[in-house]
Structure prediction request, 665 residues.
Amino acid sequence: MIGPRVEEDPVELFKDFLWSFADRDGELKYQQAVGRMIMAEQRSLVVDFDDLVAYNPSLASRVTDEPDRVLPLLSSALEAVVKTVRRDYVERAGRLFVRCRGAGLSTSIRKVDASLIGKMVNFTGVVTRASAVKAYIAEGCYECPSCGQTVVSPTAVLTCVKCGHRTKLVEERSLFDNVQLLVVQEETSALSGGRMPRAIEVVLRGDLVDTVKPGDRVSVSGVVRPKKVRSLYDLYVDANFVEPLVKEPEDLEITQEDEEAIKRASQDPDLVDKMASSIAPTIYGMKEVKEAVLYMLVGGVTRQAPDGLRLRGDIHVLLIGDPGIGKSQLLRSVAAVAPKAIMTTGKGSTAAGLTAAVLRDKETGEPYLEAGALVLADGGVCCIDEIDKMSADDRSALHEAMEQQTVSIAKAGIVATLNARCSILAAANPAFGRYLSNRPLAENVKLPPTILSRFDLIFIMTDRPDKVEDTNVASHILKVRSEVRPSPAFSPQFIRKYVAYAKRMRPVLTKEAMDRIAEYYLKLREAVNEDSPIPITPRQLESLIRLAEARAKLFLRDRVTVEDAEAAIRLMDYCLRRVARDEMGRLDIDVVMSGKPKSQREKMVKILEIVERLQSEVQGPVHKSLVVEEAKKAGMDEAFVEQALERLHREGMLIQPKTGYFKKV
Prediction:
C-alpha cells in the first residue's frame, strides 16, 4: 500500500508511515508493531524495507544512500510516535531504534568494497566467530577539570570547547551500551570452484548482541565503514539489523501449501523408496545406503535421562567402498539436500578445523574461540569425505563429538564445552585399493575400532562384475548424460522441507515395537556361550531404537510401530552380516568394536603365551622362527603368525630388541 505524501521531511514521512501503513488484509501493521514493542519493553522496532519501498521509494532510497543521516531521523520519528502513546516508556527506555530488515543494496561479502563506504548494504553469510559482549560509549559526558565545562557527545571530545584544556570522561554520567563483534563468511555453496570464501567483520550494538551464534546462516543489513589498520583501512559493517535465516533445521520456513504437500506425501506407503531414490538420483542403486541416509537426515529422538545424561538421537553412517562407486557424489548430494550441512574432507581437516580453534584478537590480543565444522553443523549433518586420510591425532577429535556430541576446549585460559549435536556421514576408501572380503574390517580400512564402533551403520560398497547390474548401471549413466533424464519423485527443495518438518516429531516406542526389537536382540545373544563370539551389544540396540524412531518421524507418526522396528532390524542385519563376520562366517561384533574377531584374538593371546614361555626357556629375546614353529604345532598359519607378531609389536605388547627377535613387555 502507498500512503499519502505529506512532505519530504523524513521524520514526518516516517511518522505517517507508522500511523497509516496497512498490509494486504487492511490491518495497520506498524501501529500494532509499536504496541507490541511497548508491551514487550523492547528498544527497537523492526521495519520490513519492502514496506518502506512500497510506501515511499524516495525515503527508502535515502536510507540506502544516506543511512548515517536518515536512520537517526527515523529513530526520532519513532520516539515521537511512542511518546503519544506512552511518554513514560520513552523516558524509561532511553534511546529507541529503527531496525530495517533487508535494507540497503543487496550484495555479497565478496563485493563489499571502498565504493560502498557510508552506504547501507544487505548480504547473507555464515557466522564463524562471535566475540564476548563488551560495552561502548553511546553518549559520553566530557568535563573540563579547569573551567568545569561539560559536553555530552557520542564521539570523543578531547579538548574543552571553552578554554582548550584536555577533558576527562565522567563515566557515571555517560551512557554505555552493549557491543559484539561477529565474523561472517561467504557460504561455500555460493562459491565457484577454486575460490576461497571471504569474510567480513560485523559490529552488533544494543539489543542486536547475542541474537546469533557461530554456525548460524544470517542476513545482515548495515552501514559499510572503514577501520584504520596501520597505513591501510579494513572494511567492516556496522549492523542495523541481523537475523538468522534458519535458526535450526526444524525452523525452516514452511508455508501452508508446503505443509499440505508434506502431509499428503506422508500417506504414501512407498514414501521411503521414493524419497531414498530422490537422494543423489544420478547414482544408480544403493537402495539400503540411501534409505539409511534418509533416516540419518531425520534422526531419532534425543532424550534427557533423569540423572541428566543426554541420550543422543543423531545417527552416524560410514560408507566404505571401492574407488569410483559414487561415495563422494552421494555425500555432496546429502549436503545439498540437508536443511543444515557442512561438507569437509579428511585430508583438508585438522582437529582444530573440526572442533574449535583458539585464536588471538589482532587488536586486543585476547584469545577467542572460532567454531570448527562439527560445531558449525550443530543441529544438522557433517559430511566427511576420505575420513581414512585424516591423521590419527586429528581424527581423535571425533571421539567426544560422536558419542557425547560436545567439543571440550581447554587452551590459552579458555575452558569451554561447545555443542556438536550433529549426525556424521563419512566415507572411506579401502586400505588395499579395493575391499578384500577375506580380511576383517579393521585391516580393510585405516580407522581405529574406537571410531568404527561409534557409527550406527557401516556399509561395505564393493564393485563386482555382474552382467545384469552392470547393464542397469550403464543404462542409468547414459540416461543421466542424455536429453532424456530420469526425474526423481521429489525435488531437493521438497526433501529439505520434508526433513525439516519431520524432525519436529517426537515419536514414542509402542510395546509391540519394543518387544520386536528386544526379540531380535535376545535371539542373537542366545547363541552366545563361553566359546562363541558376541554378535551384538547394547550399542547396536540403541542404534536400532534410533533407526525405528527416525522411520516413524519420516511418516509423521507420534508412535513407533512394529513396521518401523522391522525396517530398522532389516537395515541393521544387512550391515552386520557384511561387516561383523569372523573367518568362520559367524557374527562377531568384536570385528567392529575391537578390530579383531574373538577367534583371532584368542590366537594372538596364544602367540603371546608362546613368546613368554620360549622367552623364559632361552632367557632372552625369542627369534621369530621359533615362535612360528611352536604356533604351527597349535594349528596356526605361518602368514597369520607373522602378521600377528607385527601387530602385537605395533600395539606395544611385544618389543623387538633386534631384527627378527621378540620379547614380551
